[in-house]
Design goal:
- The protein has helices spanning about 5-20, 25, 30-50, 65, 70-130, 150-160, 165-175, 190-195, 200-209; strands spanning about 140-145, 145.
- It has a domain at about 15-60.
- The protein has about 210 residues and is mainly α.
- The protein is about 70% helix and about 0% strand.
- The protein is built from 9 helices and 2 strands, in the order αααααββαααα.
- It comes from Sipha flava (yellow sugarcane aphid).
Length: about 210
């Protein structure tokens, strides 16, 4: 037997006889716990030193991706995806603008058609009124096919009292306008006769004499 092994056996026998047993050395759970705490303390100390020297202690987000593809390749993929997204957004924007223009054009066309329709209906009503097919002038007080109730309510009684000739006169005034006062407009005056003021007229009369 080797001298070292013989010495170790002798020491263990002496410990057993004296009742001195190293509980930690003989207890596996306590021994593993001590190893764990020692490793944890070393890790915490190491992290403090790494942070102190500005050395990264966390894995990057693409750490596992780097295991399959290089960062350069992933940047190309990212750039391609961004280009595709931008192209889709641009296409959607153009489509939306075209749709808005189309709707605006349809509204303009509808407004023009409605205006022509109202004008055509007005002309037809005027023709009917001239031919005596209708006696009222309600169509002259309409706005887009709807009566102006505020004005129509106050004038309804007056319309009933108007004669047919008065209705006809009112229709012509509404279409062609009211000419105003004409009596005495073509009468000669002193100024129009002599072409100037009174003084100039006297001089002209003296020259004629």
């Amino acid at each position: 037997m080797a001298p070292e092994l013989s010495m170790e056996i002798t020491e263990q026998q002496q410990f057993l006889k004296a009742g001195k047993i190293d509980e930690v050395a003989l207890n596996d759970f306590k021994r593993e716990t001590m190893f764990h705490r020692q490793a944890q303390s070393a890790v915490m100390r190491g992290i403090e030193l790494l942070i102190k020297h500005n050395i990264p202690t966390h894995r990057p987000e693409d750490y596992f991706a780097e295991m399959f593809k290089s960062d350069e390749h992933m940047q190309k993929v990212r750039h391609s995806l961004l280009q595709r997204k931008t192209a889709l957004e641009q296409t959607e924007k153009i489509r939306r603008i075209r749709q808005e223009k189309k709707l605006a054009k349809e509204k303009r066309v509808a407004a023009v058609q409605e205006k022509h329709k109202q004008k055509r209906e007005l002309n037809e009503n005027i023709k009917k009124f001239r031919k005596g097919l209708r006696n009222d002038l309600d169509f002259l007080e309409t706005d887009g096919g709807k009566k102006n109730k505020k004005q129509d309510g106050g004038n309804s009684e007056k319309k009933k009292n108007l004669t047919r000739s008065q209705h006809k006169r009112k229709g012509k005034d509404a279409k062609y306008g009211f000419g105003g006062k004409k009596r005495g407009m073509k009468e000669n005056t002193k100024e129009s006769t002599f072409g100037g003021s009174g003084k100039a007229s006297k001089e002209k009369m003296q020259n004629m004499d």
